[in-house]
Amino acid sequence: MINIRHAVIVLTATLLAGCGTARGAAGTEVKELRYQGNAGLVTYPELAEELGYLGDVKLKWVGNTTSGPQDIQSAATGQTDFGGAFNGAVVKLKAANAPIKAVIGYYGADRRNFNGYYVTADSPIRTARDLIGKKIGVNTLGAHHEAVIKEYLKRAGLTPEEIRQVQLVVIPPVNTEQALRQGQLDVGTLGGVLKDKALERGGLRPLFTDVELFGPFTAGTVVLREDFIARNPGTTRTFVTAFAKAVHWAQTRPRAEVVATFERIIAKRGRNESAETVRYWQSTGIAGRGGVIAEPEFGTWIDWLEREGELEPGRIKAADLYTNAFNPYANGSGS
What we know:
The chain is an alpha/beta fold and 335 residues long.
């Protein structure tokens, strides 16, 4: 897991290198927002733009993100204007004195859309204790998958020393299934289309899932720099409102309509990518209507990080991390 002291050093250096990157001069507001996307997937700001919700605010794609922690680091240092990550990663970055504020939820887990931790059907692994000395593939360290795995191990009664013997191996999600079937991993983390396609091929069974541990929950939020919000309150409200309306649209429209819209967006943006992934889309997984953030969605991970010794008790409060002030669904109206 990322050490907070190390994160402070890295963040301080990058903030110094990026001084003056807060966009929006006196009397003017930024109307073009730089962001990182995902190959073969559609983000909610991209959906908002397609649905006409963004008005005079435009999006500028600057490339694809490699992970949630990288995405919010880019936003924190001014390389982009917004980014999204697992809420535990947001807590860590804030603890490293990053001037960020979470403004809306963008992914989560429910009965149709979740992350599972899979073994081969003939694997002898049946319980958490069987994982001692074994390898689990994850997409990155210090984020959603690591947090869920360690919570599973703790709830099963493993000691800190035993938990340290469970090896987390960083592997691109597209390679996880193959590595698991070839025996290079003992457990593979699978979610979304990669999970659905792997299960279609058979021969795998879940050891546990994140939704089994926590119930339906919003797992990640999108952040903006606090100085960006202060200098661009109108743009911030337009952006978050449009984002929230896009989330609510996807939460309430028929699945076929959502998938068809995603396919249309991918075809129009011309990034030389396949739309196959979105055909497996099942749900937003977002618990709050329109992405409204709930305090436990941060409180759970603050408690976990404090327990892990990654965060000084009392250093960060959930209320310091997010605001629903710009989300129209926070007051129940959506108007």
